[in-house]
């Protein structure tokens, strides 16, 4: 006997009723009424000309034939559900973009802009990795990255995203800040550093300050930690323009006297040269490169 299309909903109702041994509980699971579940089961029994349940005052129980059909229906529906989940997972994975970037850039620059991307592309899912170590772009690795550097890395295609500039910042509550009028006076403050290749010595040289004894009192491995330390009044930090922007706009930090030093490095969107970007990753790259601040 071929499986008729109109039996599918009846089999689903029967399988739930058999699993619960209760029509009301099956109805709750399927968002039906108990009478609708009972109707489906009775139709199935009539078509098969066999009793699937024994009905008694305290509820229902499966007959031997009902148990046989319940086992088969449960296995079949579980198999179909597994395939559907696999297909859905494969589609969602195709729409996922895996990104590796710096924590500081993610926190201060990328995250405030991501709501606009997700609103425009709600079907694309994002995974953002902010490990400090350079990530390998192998088959199981990220689709793309945002890196700060010279713009050339072996095996990677690099597209320029934006340049960077360095200048000193401090909390507006830092004692004596109001009397600072020239770069040489900044050298007298407790200085906060990160692990960037360009630091205070480069900035003071560009500002024309020579021979000053610098008190580099605090060093942080993460740029946002250095800026947070400055915002808490621990001293002056040498900030990157794009990383410091939200601190400045919120008034947590202010720029100190002196020039903005063009950074040696810039930000680049990078991805493996040996493999083509998937469609969802290409959409994200194009969105990044079109940003006004890029």
From TrEMBL:
It comes from the Bacteria. The keyword DNA-binding applies. InterPro entries: LysR-type_TF_proteobact-type (IPR058163), LysR_HTH_N (IPR000847), LysR_subst-bd (IPR005119), WH-like_DNA-bd_sf (IPR036388), WH_DNA-bd_sf (IPR036390). Residues 8-63 form the HTH lysR-type domain. Keywords: DNA-binding, Transcription, Transcription regulation. Belongs to the LysR transcriptional regulatory family. This is LysR substrate-binding domain-containing protein.
């Amino acid at each position: 006997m071929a499986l008729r299309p109109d039996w599918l909903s009846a089999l689903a109702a029967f399988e739930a009723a058999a699993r619960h041994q209760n029509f009301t509980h099956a109805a709750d699971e399927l968002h039906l009424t108990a009478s609708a579940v009972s109707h489906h089961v009775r139709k199935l029994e009539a078509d098969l000309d066999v009793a699937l349940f024994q009905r008694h005052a305290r509820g229902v129980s499966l007959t031997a034939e009902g148990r046989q059909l319940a086992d088969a229906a449960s296995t079949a529906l579980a198999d179909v559900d597994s395939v559907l989940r696999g297909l859905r997972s494969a589609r969602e994975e195709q729409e996922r973009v895996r990104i590796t970037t710096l924590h500081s850039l993610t926190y201060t620059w990328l995250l405030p802009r991501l709501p606009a991307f997700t609103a425009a592309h709600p079907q694309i899912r994002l995974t953002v990795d902010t490990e400090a170590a350079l990530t390998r772009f192998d088959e199981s690795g990220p689709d793309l990255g945002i890196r700060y550097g010279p713009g050339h890395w072996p095996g990677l295609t690099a597209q320029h995203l934006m340049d960077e500039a360095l200048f000193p910042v401090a909390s507006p509550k830092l004692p004596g800040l109001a009397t600072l009028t020239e770069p040489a006076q900044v050298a007298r403050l407790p200085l906060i550093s990160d692990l960037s290749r360009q630091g205070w010595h480069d900035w003071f040289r560009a500002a024309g300050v020579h021979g000053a004894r610098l008190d580099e009192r605090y060093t942080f491995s993460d740029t946002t930690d250095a800026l947070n330390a400055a915002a808490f009044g621990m001293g002056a930090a040498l900030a990157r323009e794009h990383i410091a922007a939200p601190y400045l706009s919120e008034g947590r930090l202010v720029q100190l006297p002196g020039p903005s030093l063009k950074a040696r490095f810039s930000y680049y969107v990078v991805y493996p040269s040996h493999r083509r970007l998937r469609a969802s990753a290409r959409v994200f790259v194009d969105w990044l490169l079109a940003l006004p601040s890029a």
